[in-house]
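[SOLVED] Need 3D model of a two-part complex

Original post:
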Amino acid sequence: MKNVWFVLMLSSLIALAILSPEKTISALMKAGQDAVLLSIKLLGIYGVWLGVLGIVNKTGLAEKFASLLEPVIDFLFGKNLDKQTKSFIALNLSTNIFGIGNASTPIGIKAMQNLDKINNSEIASNSMIMLMVINATSLQLLPTTIIGLRATALSTNAGDIILPSIITTSITTLLGIILVKVLSKIKLQKNAIKNRKKLYFGGEKCK
Amino acid sequence: MQISVFIVPIFLILLLLHAKRKKVNAYVSFVEGAKSSIDLSKDIFPFLIAIFVAVNLFRESGLISCLSNFLSPVLKLFGIPHEICELILIRPFSGSASLAILENIFSQFGADSYVSRCASTIMGSSETVFYIATIYFSQTKAKRLLYAIPVALLCTFVGAVISCLVCKIM
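Solution:
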């Protein structure tokens, strides 16, 4: 992420300096103001959904939900997760599927924090990567915002993109899961080879 | 479309009734839960500013339209019309910016045109990859994401290709 940010900033600033240096400050300030507006909006949205999450947690509904989705979560994230993390992941995935994206983000961040505590390393664990990739490939079944926009743009059949979206989303999510699974296996093998070498050479030295 | 409208209210009604039955104080639980939103928003804010600054400079500098002109012949090979190249480039970075481009496409080509349907499907089946990577990993010790972003971007691109293909068939 830090590399992406750096390249994006540097190349844009160079282009601005050559083409239209007078735009730079206004572009910077507009970005800052937009971020403030969004974060105030998010404060309200997160407040409502984390409040609902509070009730869900207290009533024990979250754990019930997690046990319902347990086979899926076990397959995707490994079996040895604690109950709270599992229920956060279950809620993150299901709010995503039902298109309550605003609710899934704060819950997803909480799930990620828990996974991070388990991982306790500078390098993201496989389950952390899995959580991000699944969220980033979109799970939403009904793209309600887009359908609404199409209706306001006077589409005769605003919902005709539902089926194509579901097809595309299913394929990309599946692809994401497969890729993460395969790549994590490769990573595991690489580490195993490294460890074996270490053990071998270490053993030689000891003698 | 109609059913989805009922999900949230019905879920909340059931939740409140469930809380009543379990003798959980719904009001206090809600307030406690909502409290954590302040810290969350506060912690996310600097990351939001950083990503907004980068994306806005990227757009204002004209690099994005330059890049989309440059890449459109390549994307054409994958069956992606050049009208939506800019959308595909900005989609991983910003939801609001890509929505603005989508509305622009609607008013330019009409909401029921092939280009608009492709663009809608792409929007409906993808997410803001960089935004999600930033926000989800903003509160973690782990900062090296290994293959996470490349995989997510590849999936987004494959999704765009499939969207255009499916819209052509259907």
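Edit: Confidence is low (pLDDT under 50) at residues 203-207 of chain A.
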